[in-house]
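[09:14] KT: can someone run the structure on this one? pasting the chain below
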Amino acid sequence: MQNKLPIVNVATVCEKILRETDNVASLIRVIDVFHLPQEAVQLQPEGSIPVSALIVVRGGDYRGEGEIAVSVHTPDGKQQDFPEKWPMLFSDAVPANSLVLNFGMAFKHVGTSWIDVLWNGELLTKFPITLALQSAALPAPTA
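[09:31] RB: done, structure tokens below
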């Protein structure tokens, strides 16, 4: 059966993505949960943590053009759409496309956010990113 949409091969968050000279991506520290020190959040309540996401889609049997859009659903129930849309073409010569997103997750979004990946407005997949407050370090025991 022919697929009517591209197929998601990778959709994940990590600390860093390296794009090698042969255009192959290397993911460094794939992370589901970013632990934020409470002190940092208290000192910089408007701060953010840098995050990278890799999205790889394959055409499979699908041929044609379209665009990827990305939106983030934060724990407070709000949706933030990335302003860009990324056009992609799938053909025999171009069986796959990848997208690297570098963005900041605001400290105020402690909890689990969901990143939606849309193809021409239709949901392809979603994946989570969680910001968790790390407990303050306990003082070292004294003798």
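[09:33] KT: thanks! The chain has one domain: 7-134.
[09:34] RB: yep, looked fine to me
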